[in-house]
């Protein structure tokens, strides 16, 4: 497959996954910040995030897995696309790594108004950061 087509496809799927997770697909600054909060390796730059968003680059496998986990999509779908893996993105079945209690929690989160969803997300991110520091 043509490398530029692969990069463009990845970019489109990344943007879709960001939108589905209520993040802006147009903000490399937000992408870099949110990714770096969750990634244990070397942080990415805003420039690297921009290259992912505009289809100029595809992240390493390690970063791709971290992106997929953060955004709740299969890493294979994020990297290569395909219909079978894509079903979980638009209200289909949840990714198999989630327990039923996790699915219920996500469902409850979606019932909250936008302000309370943002508070809940920030609280969870804070807990994750605190847990990493232990």
Write a concise synopsis of the structure shown.
The chain is mostly helical and 134 residues long. The protein has helices at residues 3-20, 28-38, 46-54, 61-71, 75-80, 83-86, 100-111, 114-132.
What descriptive keywords fit this protein?
134 residues, mainly alpha, 434 Repressor (Amino-terminal Domain), 2 domains, 8 helices, 0% strand
Q: Could you characterize what this model shows?
A:
- The protein is mainly alpha-helical.
- The chain folds into 2 domains: 91 residues, lambda repressor-like DNA-binding domains (434 Repressor (Amino-terminal Domain), Orthogonal Bundle), CATH 1.10.260.40; 37 residues, no CATH class.
- The protein is built from 8 helices and no strands.
- Helix 2 packs across helix 3.
- It starts with a helix and ends with a helix.
Structural class call reads mainly alpha
CATH topology of the largest domain: 434 Repressor (Amino-terminal Domain)
Uncertain residue ranges: 84-97
Radius of gyration using CA atoms only: 15 Å
- CATH H-level homologous superfamily name of the largest domain: lambda repressor-like DNA-binding domains
C-alpha geometry: globular
Q: Distance N terminus to C terminus?
A: 44 Å
Percent helix: 55-70%
Secondary structure layout:
Blueprint: H1 3-20, H2 28-38, H3 46-54, H4 61-71, H5 75-80, H6 83-86, H7 100-111, H8 114-132
């Amino acid at each position: 497959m043509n490398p530029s087509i692969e990069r463009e496809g990845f970019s489109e799927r990344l943007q879709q996954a960001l939108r589905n997770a209520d993040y802006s697909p147009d903000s490399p600054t937000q992408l870099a910040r949110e990714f770096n909060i969750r990634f244990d390796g070397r942080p990415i730059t805003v420039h690297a995030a921009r290259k992912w968003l505009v289809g100029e680059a595809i992240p390493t496998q390690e970063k791709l897995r971290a992106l997929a986990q953060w955004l709740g999509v299969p890493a294979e779908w994020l990297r290569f696309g395909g219909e079978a893996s894509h079903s979980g993105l638009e209200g289909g079945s949840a990714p198999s790594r989630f327990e039923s209690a996790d699915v219920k929690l996500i469902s409850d989160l979606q019932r909250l108004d936008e302000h309370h969803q943002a508070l809940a997300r920030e609280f969870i991110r804070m807990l994750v950061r605190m847990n990493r520091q232990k």
